[in-house]
Structures are given as structure tokens and as C-alpha cells.
Design goal:
9-stranded antiparallel β-sheet; 6 helices; 21% strand; 3-stranded antiparallel β-sheet; globular; alpha+beta; 329 residues
Length: 329
């Protein structure tokens, strides 16, 4: 079961999802529940001999379209609510090995269409306020299934971190009439010191305020609130720069770089959120090839990140790494 419990101190929801304790954890390579079902083999999540991309509802979701009633009754101080929403899994390929970094640019372009269609479909649900598309990659992140895949959480509320930057963007727009995201982007383009790659329509950079040593953001150069606002040429350039960034990560130390990849975009709650810019964030947990950036006392307890490196130096390091644009066809 799952439910929402209100934290009256931080004024935000916590999700309890006790059934997730039973989710599959690092199964053997000869049985992957995300591969196609083999003839005569154990049934998997995909009852087909092969597939291109697959999207299905998570078997162990944090949210459900029709959630059960909460297990406990709340009160005025600490209310409880049904954990309503949608949790989906996006399978990038039928092949068990490999990563998204190895996908061709045309394949990444098709994946962008999958993301766009799911954003549009989930946004149309009247109980969904925010569609969050992300990928957890690598055991260092806590991945329990190694098959290349991402996830989509469609929230019935706006998550707390997202709410903070939305309110910030709204306040900035009210004060200046401009987008804080676009002003920051123009500053990065002018400074150039933290840019690691760019093409005609997209730019990738380590932000001035980076929380992780190799944190990279990817922005469209034009103002685009969501995936649905991108045109065909922009989607091709987005596929290309995703390929470049992920290739640079893997070529940095000749390892498959673990990361959280996430997208932020316009909420789907029907309210006005001026100045919101669609963008990617990559959050790798490594500060060196064999050293993790732990979210310890200051980060987890106080909410203040300490970056042991200078964004300008790390941007130069990534900028110098040659991306291998293999498998272009």
C-alpha cells in the first residue's frame, strides 16, 4: 500500500509505499524482467519476442491512478491522503546490455518522441499536476534493475524541490518581466567558461552554482516551457547534445558514468507559471573515478550542498573530452 503523509514542519508530502520493499533487486543476468519474454521462458514485463521502446505502469509504484484508502487516519496537524498518480517505466531497448550513451542519435530522437507523448498524455489527466521524467543509472545511484530504462512519475501535487524553483521563477518574472532560466543561460553563453558543448539550438554547461562536481545542465537556446514546445529541428539537436554529454561522461575515465538524469518543465496543473524553461539536469555521484560525492550531514541534514571542486575547472575537463558519436545510423 502507499499513502501521502503531510509534514507540517516542512509543509510537504512524504510518500509511504511499503509494498516497494518487495521489488526486484539485481536479478541474475539470465533472468531480466525487462527483456522480451523468451519462447518457453519465464514471463517478463514484456509479453513479446522483441520491441523498440516499451512504456508500462511500474509493478511497484509509489503512486497509483486508483489508490487504496490510507492505512491510518490523519488529523488537522498531520493529514493523510491517498497516493494518487502514475508511475511508469520506459524501456530504451530490448537488449539487456549497454546504456543510453551507446544509443544512436536517431534512436535518441525516437526516445524524445516517447517522452513527449507520455508528457502530453499524462498532462491531460485532471489529477496530475507535475510530470517528472528521469533515469537512475548505475549501482552507485541505487539501481536495482540494470536493463537500460528510465521512469516517469506523474504527481498529483507539485514536489517540494520543484515548487521552490517554480516560486523563484514566478517571483523573478514578477520583478523583472524576464525568465530567470533564460537570464542564467545568457550569462553562461556570455561567460563561456562553464560550457562543455553546444550546437545550433542547445547548450550543455556546468552551472555556476553546481552542487555536484560533474553536474551538467542542458538547455534549449530558445524559450521552451516543455517538451511539447520543441520543433523537429530542436528535437534532433537535443538528441545530438544528449549523445555528446553522455559520451563525454563515459570517456572521461573510460567507465560507464553513473548519474541521475532528470527533466524539469512546465507543470500540468493549469496554473500560470511564467518564465519556466524546459531543461535537463545530470547529477553524477562521482567526484573522482573511485570517489563518491556523499550527501552527508550538511547536504542531507541542513540542505546545503558543499562542492569540493570549481565548476570552471570541471567544465574545462569535460570540454576537453572527445565525444564519440558512434552508431549514428
Amino acid at each position: 500500500m502507499s499513502e501521502l503523509r503531510w509534514n507540517p514542519i516542512l509543509r510537504e508530502w512524504t510518500v509511504t509505499a511499503t509494498h516497494r520493499q518487495a521489488r526486484t533487486f539485481l536479478p541474475p543476468d539470465d533472468y531480466c524482467p525487462l527483456e522480451p519474454t523468451k519462447p518457453g521462458g519465464f514471463p517478463t514485463e514484456v509479453p513479446a519476442a522483441d520491441y523498440d521502446f516499451v512504456v508500462f505502469e511500474n509493478r511497484f509504484p509509489s503512486f497509483r491512478p486508483d489508490p487504496a484508502a490510507p492505512a491510518i487516519e490523519g488529523d488537522a496537524l498531520e493529514p493523510v491522503a491517498p497516493s494518487k498518480g502514475v508511475c511508469e517505466v520506459v524501456l530504451y531497448t530490448s537488449q539487456h546490455g549497454g546504456t543510453l550513451a551507446e544509443a544512436s542519435i536517431p534512436r535518441l530522437r525516437r526516445l524524445i518522441e516517447v517522452w513527449t507523448e507520455r508528457y502530453r498524455t499524462l498532462a491531460a489527466l485532471d489529477y496530475i499536476d507535475y510530470v517528472y521524467i528521469f533515469e537512475n543509472k548505475g549501482k552507485d545511484i541505487g539501481v536495482t534493475l540494470t536493463h537500460p530504462h528510465g521512469q516517469i512519475y506523474a504527481f498529483s501535487f507539485i514536489p517540494p524541490f520543484v515548487n521552490r524553483w517554480l516560486q523563484s521563477a514566478k517571483d523573478y518574472y514578477a520583478e523583472t518581466g524576464r525568465s530567470v532560466f533564460m537570464d542564467m543561460l545568457q550569462k553562461e553563453l556570455h561567460d563561456e567558461k562553464r560550457i562543455i558543448a553546444q550546437n545550433a539550438r542547445f547548450v550543455a554547461f556546468i552551472p555556476f552554482f553546481a552542487r555536484f562536481p560533474y553536474e551538467v545542465h542542458i538547455y534549449p537556446k530558445a524559450f521552451r516551457p516543455s517538451l511539447t514546445d520543441l520543433d523537429n529541428a530542436e528535437k534532433w539537436d537535443m538528441a545530438e547534445i544528449l549523445k555528446v554529454v553522455m559520451s563525454k561522461y563515459d570517456n572521461l575515465w573510460q567507465i560507464s558514468m553513473p548519474y541521475i538524469m532528470l527533466m524539469h518543465q512546465q507543470p500540468t496543473d493549469g496554473k500560470a507559471w511564467p518564465g519556466v524553461q524546459f531543461h535537463f539536469e545530470f547529477l553524477p555521484p562521482l567526484r573522482a573515478k573511485d570517489r563518491l560525492k556523499y550527501l552527508a550531514g550538511c547536504e542531507s541534514g541542513a540542505g546545503t550542498f558543499i562542492n569540493d571542486t570549481l565548476p570552471e575547472e570541471k567544465a574545462a575537463e569535460l570540454r576537453a573530452v572527445a565525444p564519440q558519436l558512434w552508431r549514428l545510423a
